[in-house]
Design a protein that fits this description.
Helices cover 28% and strands 38% of the residues. It has two domains: 4-95 and 205-210, no CATH class; 101-179, Gcn5-related N-acetyltransferase (GNAT) (Aminopeptidase), CATH 3.40.630.30. Helix 2 packs across helix 3 (76-83). Strands 1, 2, 3, 4, 5, 6, 7, 8, 9, 10, 11 and 12 form a twelve-stranded mixed beta sheet that branches. 37% of the residues are buried. By secondary structure, it is α+β, with helices and mostly antiparallel strands. It has helices spanning 4-20, 53-62, 76-83, 162-176, 188-196; strands at residues 27-28, 32-37, 43-48, 68-72, 87-89, 93-99, 111-118, 121-128, 133-142, 145-153, 181-185, 200-210.
Length: 212
């Protein structure tokens, strides 16, 4: 059985993710939550909070093709066997949490950091001297929890501290909006950066996507 602690974090992440991507409020189901997305594409994203295959089977009926997504926090091998080859999976990826703290963002010479807020969504961008976006990220706060989303640094500008600057600016903006804690879904490649900034692994999730 998935612990209440994990399901609480999944709830917070799902609600914040819907807000930061401006999708509909997640719908409670017998097996978890469903987000009906229009961004980045029209699809249903289904988070399964139970570790039994009946829950996965029920979610699969609501994760409409094309582009439907099922996310599980346990029994990913059994879920893969049940769903079959029509569903493509990611490796288990980290869902991380932290207690926010103020750290002044700083960028190296030749870069400029800006933060804008639109309908509750904060967008932090770092521009190079030529005006191109070198790094960026988003956050939204729901029920005192900030969800950090789509943090990325252009490959030509990596290893210059830009990712750290984006994360610190997002944290400051979230705290200004009343957030105390934060959650993000990252990759194993990005996990080291987040851990250096004080984030901790909470659980791992596996996503299954049906393209047809």
């Amino acid at each position: 059985m998935i612990s209440h602690d994990v399901t609480d974090v999944l709830h917070s992440w799902a609600k914040g993710l819907a807000a930061v991507r401006r999708n509909s409020v997640p719908v409670e189901t017998a097996w978890g939550l469903r987000i009906d997305e229009v961004r980045p594409k029209t699809r249903s994203r289904c988070l399964v909070f139970r570790d039994d295959l009946d829950a996965v089977r029920s979610a699969a009926k609501e994760a409409a093709a094309p582009h439907g997504v099922i996310i599980v926090a346990a029994a990913e091998d059994a879920a893969a066997a049940l769903l079959g080859p029509d569903w493509q999976s990611t490796p288990p990826e980290p869902l991380m949490t932290t207690t926010l703290r103020q750290t002044a963002p700083s960028v190296p010479a030749g870069y400029d950091l800006s933060a804008t807020i639109d309908a509750g969504v904060t967008n932090v961008r770092i521009h190079s001297e030529t005006g191109e976006v070198a790094a960026a990220g988003y956050t939204a706060v729901v029920d005192g929890v900030a969800v950090v989303d789509r943090v990325a640094t252009d490959p030509e500008h990596q290893r210059r501290g830009l990712g750290t600057a984006v994360m610190n600016a997002l944290a400051a903006a979230a705290m200004d909006q009343g957030a105390v804690t934060a959650v993000l879904h990252g990759t194993e490649e990005g996990r080291a950066l987040y851990e250096r900034l004080g984030w901790q692994l909470h659980t791992k999730i596996t996503s299954f996507t049906r393209e047809a």
